[in-house]
Amino acid sequence: MLVDGKAWRSIWPLADGTAVAVIDQTKLPFAFVVARLETLADAARAIAEMLVRGAPLIGATAAYGFWLGMREAADDMHLARVADTLVACRPTAVNLRWAVERMQARLAPLAPAERPAAAFAEVGRICEEDVAANAAIGRHGLALIKAIWQKKGRKAPVNILTHCNAGWLATVDWGTALAPVYAAAEAGIPLHVWVDETRPRNQGASLTAWELAKAGIAHHLLADNAGGHLMQHGQVDLCIVGSDRTTASGDVCNKIGTYLKALAARANGVPFYAALPGSTVDWRLSDGIREIPIEERAGAELLSVQGRTEDGRVLRVRIAPDETPACNPAFDVTPAGLVTGLITERGLCPASRAGLAALFPERAG
User: Fold this and answer.
1) Any binding-site annotation on 268?
2) Among 292, 347, 357, which Cα is nearest to 94's?
3) What range defines the domain where residue 20 resides?
4) Is 203 labelled as part of a ligand binding site?
5) Of 32, 132, 261, 267, which is most buried by a Cβ count within 10 Å?
6) Domain count within the chain
7) For the segment 142-200, what is each residue's pLDDT rounded down to a tens digit?
8) Residue 365 — very low, low, confident or very high, per pLDDT cuts 50/70/90?
9) Is residue 133 part of a domain?
């Protein structure tokens, strides 16, 4: 996507082959910083500390972590250690495990000397597949937005609410939930996006709002608890969110607070869609509430907030009493019954086992 007129991806190998570069998302929106990942440990830290985040980008970073790990040593013992190190970084996003298992399957049959080059080639394929899948998600989601616009007489903008960041910063490029927004903007459909702030890390405020501003798309930042009010007053035409893991039965796991948006959408007759590539479907799980591991992050994320002062300094300040502890689950699960449909690279489908199986028969079996 474009940032100040220059095309960027969220992750890429440096031309000299010495490292992988990522946009450090912990510095946005106040500074645009590119970080170098030179070792397996660098890749693991980038995932764990959320320099990179978003299920597809986590998967791509893990795949690059395999390449960096194979440059350090390529014997069988190290291959297993690389996999274990990466899988342990974050528990909820299934793309992490998916990418690790794919890299293992590609590299395990090879001689150690062949593994570094094979790893680099495979991660290249993973990244290009991600870009293609997200562009296709954009095309399929565009049809939804276009239908709403036509229903509104092709005059008023389509108002879309999203939660967290599922734009190009969460993928290699294009994004998932925002891919239809970008496709609609390119098609000339007038849009307005309600951007949930997404406490406690404020990915909506710091990432989604930044993306939309750079793309010139009309948007407003929204307090997390305001979405239901807007839906009650007819100010939301469509909700689109991403997914860190979707079960075979259509349950959607996304950033904490997504479930409440789905409840409000159902109560007010607002369509609620999740956009995701097939790699985000965990075919081994059926009951998202009971089976998806929910990451519990440090309480400090909730007890403090980062911002920029009037004189330009970026500071983190505490917002709760010193004696107050925090409970900080990072994700929640929206049951399939609250999801109008899923937007995938292969088209739209109901949030159900039958719906997903119809699009991905080779994986559903």
Assistant:
1) no
2) 292
3) 2-128
4) yes
5) 261
6) 2
7) 999 999 999 999 989 999 999 999 999 999 999 999 999 999 999 999 999 999 999 99
8) confident
9) no
Helix pair angle (94-107, 115-151), 10° resolution: 140
Q: Is 245 annotated as a binding residue?
A: no
Q: Is 53 labelled as part of a ligand binding site?
A: yes
| Residue 102 marked as a ligand binder | no
148 within 8 A of 187, measured Cβ to Cβ: no
| CATH code of residue 46 | 1.20.120.420
Q: Are residues 113 and 169 in the same domain?
A: no
Average pLDDT, the chain: 96
- 68 with 124, same domain: the answer is yes
Residues 258 and 312 reside in one and the same domain? yes
Check pLDDT > 80 for residue 363.
yes
Let me know whether 197 and 346 are in one domain: yes
Q: Verify whether residue 16 is a known catalytic residue.
A: no
- Of 237, 244, 282, 332, the active-site residue reads 244
